[in-house]
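Board notes (copied after class):
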Amino acid sequence: MANTIIHKAETRGDANHGWLHSRHTFSFADYYDPERVHFGMLRVLNDDIVEAGMGFGTHPHDNMEIISIPLEGDLEHKDSMGNVSLIKHGDVQVMSAGTGITHSEYNKNKDKRVKFLQIWVLPDRKNVKPRYDQITLNIKDRHNKLQQILSPNPDDAGVWIYQNAWFHLAQFENGFSADYNIKAKENGVYAFILSGDITINNQELKSRDGFGIWDVDKISVKANSDAEFLLIEVPMK
């Protein structure tokens, strides 16, 4: 029997710092809800808007897999490993923080905001050597398809992390439907709706809603309008 949990968009944590407006699906910083600490190994899902010319100063991380998915605008990244890069819509960035890194992220543009998702996944091992990677994807490859953007395997499509996890992005036209098969038996799927309306296994979802489902072999997704969404498959234990 499937287990499910729904997080409606308006119930998320809301942190507006002026330069940064962040909506937290799970407990983060000053937002704490004991019922919303994580979904399996998915620990953080922040929906961030950074104002023009602003950003996150240098700060540390360790023993976490950190994935950034830009939705709009350009984000400049600098880190203690010597990486300096620009990530934009269509890119996916990953850091394995491992034994420890510091980094900063800034909105490179002086005239427009940056919107991006920051996602943290708990790793399956501790104190690895820190690593950084980013790739540019073909956005057309998610039109009425599930485009894999992350996996546990360095030889597979997308970036990889130290966890038995898979991420897929999709843009479905109104009325299009598809099944997603769970890749590992102990895993569940957390869906985050970027735009539009979709139905997953009879659960109707709107823009910025989150929906977790586990103890199933597959899920069915149907678009009730033109819609874009992210599927995050992670171990539940």
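Comment from the instructor: The chain has no helices and 22 strands. Residues 40 and 237 are 6 Å apart (CA to CA).
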